[in-house]
Amino acid sequence: MVQATASEQPAYNSGAIDFIPANIENLGAASDITLSGAFTIGIKLEADASNVTVLGSNTTANEFFKITSTTNVRFKTDGSQVDMTIDSGTLITALNLVITRNSSDLITLYLDGVAQADTETLAGTADINAIGVRATDANPYDGTISEIQIYDTESTALTANVSTYLSNI
Questions:
Q1: Listed ranges 5-9, 10-14, 27-31, 45-49; the one with the highest mean pLDDT
Q2: How buried is residue 106: exposed, middle or buried, by Cβ count under 10 Å (0-12/13-18/19+)?
Q3: Of 16, 48, 59, 117, which has the fewest beta carbons less than 10 angstroms from its beta carbon?
């Protein structure tokens, strides 16, 4: 991921990339990462606000993973969405998030290694070509991100390994 526009480049501070939403800071790619089946996405982040996009497409509408409130996340593919509520606590803090989709399209959110009770079903292709915004430059991320891992597979072992890795950063 890169950002050629200097005014939109997030800063690297103390092991994390710091995104300032007023500048619409984001990172993008020339082509999409497309996840049409099972996947695992691990993210170590510290959001400073809600209604912010963590991952998405900055060229295709309705493709994103977003923190919508202090207790909810939204995942949207091909115009269909699911909203997931965490069991307790807040998303506006330092967290390790892992989101998985299995071969039956079941979405599970793991917060600091713990599967949350609210699971949802969502088919479709997830298109990702941006960190910190969705099409076009909407809902810019506010906070830091120090790691993102994206896999086109899902398993209990992979989820555990990603969660463990993120917790040790």
A1: 45-49
A2: middle
A3: 117
The reported pTM is 0.96
Structure tokens at 116: 């949350």
Q: Enter the tokens of residue 21.
A: 């939403």
By C-alpha distance, which of 8, 40, 14 is closest to 130? 8
pLDDT in tens, 31-81: 899 999 999 999 999 999 999 999 999 999 999 999 999 999 999 999 999
The CATH classification of domain 9-167, taken from the options 3.30.1070.10, 2.60.120.200, 1.20.120.530, 3.80.30.20: 2.60.120.200
Largest interatomic CA distance in the chain: 42
Question: Position of tokens 């509408």?
Answer: 61
Domain ranges of the chain: 9-167
Q: Do residues 68 and 80 make contact, with C-beta atoms less than 8 angstroms apart?
A: no
Q: Length of the chain in residues, anyone?
A: 169
